[in-house]
Amino acid sequence: MVREANVKQAAAEKQLKEAQGKIDVLQAEVMALKTLVLTSTPSSPNRQLHPQLQSSGTRGSLKHVGHIRNKSASGAFAAASTKPELSSVSIQPVAKEDREMDSILFAEFLLWREHPSLDRSSAFLSRIYREDIGPCLTFTRSELSQLVQSAVEKNSLTIEPVAMSAVPMVKASAIECGGPKKCALSGLSRLCRHRIKLGDKGSYYYISPSSRARITAVCNFFTYIRYIQQGLVRHDADQMFWEVMRLRREMTVAKLGFYLTDQG
Questions:
Q1: Closest Cα to residue 39, out of 20, 65, 19?
Q2: Closest CA to 133 of 225, 242, 262
Q3: CA dihedral of 129, 134, 137, 142, whole degrees rounded to 10
Q4: N or C: which end of the chain has fewer CB within 10 A?
């Protein structure tokens, strides 16, 4: 029994040493990763971690630089400490977005904020309707565009994804609603992964990704100003104003045809 216990103890000690060795290796790799990650920020990204930021001429000289997962601690530290020759690196200045408050826009917002409402007669909302909401929700099919805008204003518009594997055939009598491959708003042949419904009752209208992005951008704006109207936003006036400006920018970008797609 004593011999058995000694054998088990020896085996346990051996496993413990092996485990400690693996822990040391992992800790070394974590330290190496931290060395790289902590030197990368949005305003000053580490070009070793972001090869897409390098010019085509620089990529070749840096292709072996960066962290590589090694089985030894020395290998991990060596990868982290490797530095390219300064003469072979062309450091490009990273553009930083700045902003400046427009006094007229801010004054209109402050005036609206004193008595927030969805009445478009205010200078604040009147401008946004004219410059952002109207253009963003103007599609080829004008009548349907007006119905969509009205539903967004009433908060009665529904957007839902379409199961592409079980999309029903669109009857000839429902062509105006578009279909899985035709956007009801733009009339263009596009793969429509979403559809909208105006109110509790009515037909479904298939919409393209671009049309969905435009509608969503306007809905996001209305959601935020409703929150302000209901007293749910506790930020100061400056923060509210810049969030409104960000939402206005979303509408402008969507109107120009830019939208995000799901990767995967």
A1: 65
A2: 225
A3: 140
A4: C
Q: What are phi and psi of 231, to 5 degrees?
A: 75, 25
Which of 22-36, 107-121, 235-249 is predicted with the least confidence, judged by mean pLDDT? 22-36
By CB atoms closer than 10 A (0-12, 13-18, 19+), residue 234 is exposed
Q: Report in angstroms the alpha-carbon separations of 99 from 24, 104, 192, 220, 258.
A: 47, 15, 36, 22, 22
pLDDT tens, 189-232? 999 999 999 988 778 999 999 999 999 999 999 999 999 999 99
- What's the mean per-residue pLDDT of the chain? 78
pLDDT at 89: 52
Instruction: Measure the CA–CA gap between 233 and 210, rounded to whole angstroms.
Output: 30
Looking at residue 1, the DSSP 8-state letter turns out to be -
Higher pLDDT, 25 or 58: 25
Alpha-helix runs per DSSP H in the chain = 2-37, 56-62, 73-81, 103-114, 123-128, 134-136, 142-154, 209-229, 237-255
Convert 173-190 to b/e letters by CB count within 10 Å (16 or more is b). Answer: ebeebbbbebbbbbeeeb
Which of 127, 122, 120 minimizes the C-alpha distance to 111?
122
Q: What distance, in Å, lies between the first and last C-alpha atoms of the chain?
A: 59
> What letters, b where the CB count within 10 A reaches 16 and e where it falls short, cover 14-35?
eeeeeeeeeeebeebbeebbeb
Render pLDDT for 73-89 as a digit per residue (tens, 0 to 9): 444 444 444 444 544 55
Min mean pLDDT across 6-20, 220-234, 241-255 is at 6-20
CA 226/CA 116 separation, integer angstroms: 9
> Could you tell me how many residues make up the chain?
264
